[in-house]
Design brief:
Structural class: mainly alpha
Distance between the termini: 23 Å
Number of strands: 0
Radius of gyration: 12 Å
Shape: globular
Strand content: under 5%
Number of helices: 3
Helix content: 40-55%
């Protein structure tokens, strides 16, 4: 997912969460989790409390 699309996606999810008063957020793919992590500042802390950090993603996907 290109960065521009990741931000658009994260903003869309954040808007839906705010409109619907979502209590917790579950991601379904690595790509969506990475997009949400990159823009985690858009979300209430409770929504992304168990989302891995950028450094955790980097460690997990480091092939070397």
């Amino acid at each position: 997912m290109p960065v521009e699309r990741a931000e658009t996606y994260a903003r869309w999810v954040a808007r839906i969460c705010n409109e619907r008063k979502v209590d917790h957020l579950f991601w379904t793919t690595t790509v969506s989790a990475m997009a949400l992590e990159r823009f985690r500042g858009l979300f209430a802390p409770r929504l992304v409390a168990d989302l891995p950090t950028t450094s955790a993603f980097a460690l997990a996907y480091n092939k070397s």
